[in-house]
Amino acid sequence: MRRPFARVLALAAAAAAIPLVSTAPATADVVIGGYPVEISESPWTVALSSRDRFGGTRAGQFCGGVVIGRSTVLTAAHCLSEEVLGAPPRQVRDLRVVAGRGDLLSDEGKEIAIRETWINPRYDGYTNAGDFAVLTLAEPLAASSVIRMAGPEDAAYRTGTDAVVYGWGDTTSGGDYARALRAARVRVLSDTVCEGAYPGSADGTYLAGSMLCAGEGAGGRDACQGDSGGPLVAQGRLIGLVSWGSGCGRADSPGVYTRVSEVVRTLGAGR
Q: Is residue 266 part of a domain?
């Protein structure tokens, strides 16, 4: 049985050397069933890094994130948990956002300190509901790095819509993490399909309205460990953040994402 990304990340963090949190996003090709992509094609995709916690093999990458404002990055709440980081985020001295860098071992782009972290207080680690957090950067990025978030009535959420998930995660579901950014094409699935796949178990519970799921019925394309917090994009807008799932790329077990319209609603209400 495949576990939700949040739980896998917690177990990986204990391993410290090459934690699942930090090196793998999808399935068979880093983002299972994926393909290489240049960071210039998705400049809003960033990596979360802590070399002290996760080592320097992959620049300390352990989760993904997405730029929604020049100094604002969204990621998954579970990526900033003490189980993953080993301490509250404010105590992790080298916590950084790596922007403008597709190859984690290159010197391109920037590693930017985090001035402030905000974790959704309604995040539920059992159901995986409300899995998002906001990072405020110590210095701004270019306006061209920002992606627009899809609001509640956006057509990009419709069932069957083609979408792309990005990350540096596991490419085989066996701990083979990518060094360079990858992406995978998936389809937005109906709430009925998602509820059938995750009616409520130790993995989590699919909650329509605050979550969406995407993949292929036969499996093969998905996000995976290390992709958590990374973007799901459709029609040029951000619609989801990689959150959890049962395994990676399995048939009838699609990846589950935090629905960005819920993030928009929460942030619009002043958090």
A: no
80 in a structural domain = yes
Digit-coded pLDDT (tens) for 213-247: 999 877 788 889 899 999 999 999 999 999 999 88
Q: Do 117 and 246 reside in the same domain of the chain?
A: no
- As a whole number of angstroms, the distance between CA 78 and CA 101 comes to 23
Helix (H/G/I), strand (E/B), else coil: 22: helix
What's the burial of 155, exposed, middle or buried (CB within 10 Å: 0-12/13-18/19+)? Answer: exposed
Question: Domain of 185?
Answer: 149-260
Global pTM?
0.88
Question: How far apart, in whole angstroms, are the C-alpha atoms of residue 150 and residue 207?
Answer: 18
Question: Letter for the amino acid at 223?
Answer: A
- Kindly list the distances between the CA atom of residue 80 and the CA atoms of 87, 89, 91, in Å, as whole numbers in the listed order: 9, 6, 11
pLDDT 10s digits, 171-181 = 776 777 888 99
Instruction: Identify which of 131, 152, 246 has the alpha carbon closest to the alpha carbon of residue 199.
Output: 246
- Domain membership flag for residue 270: no
For the domain that residue 95 is a member of, what is the CATH number? 2.40.10.10
Q: Catalogue the active-site residues.
A: 78, 131, 228
